[in-house]
Amino acid sequence: MSAAENKTLVRRLERILIAFFLLATLFLLVVYFAAPTVYTNTLLLAPSPTDRYPLPATLFLVGVLVFIAALIVGVVHHWRWVFWLLLVAFSFMILEIPATVLQLTGVLPNLYPIWYSLCRMGVALIAVVIAVWMFRIYRHHGVWAMGKKPPPLL
Prior knowledge:
Elements: H1 3-34, H2 37-42, H3 55-77, H4 80-92, H5 96-104, H6 114-141
């Protein structure tokens, strides 16, 4: 594959990952403002009728948003550790699918509304598809499609 094709592949991967993170950010914000009880349940906080947006939930949201921003910077700069982190994290999101099915069937307790569980399962499906694509890119073109390193000299 030529350098121009690799560059195109790198740009495509960047755009897909950045779009995924921006949509995740939008989803986090919508859930925070529409159903803040999802955050209070996640953090095992006691819901309060007077405090719709408790400080720990807000700090948690800010922390997640800062982490997503750092990942976007890592994607743009092609940090190797970000590639591997995303590949592993997105691959393990396959476990979200059977867990959600077990929650919806009542085998496991479900702390979240059904719509939220189904959205999480949809996000997991998308992430697994991205992980498979990233793995294929790695196998054929190296990390971030930047070419494979030559084997070490003895």
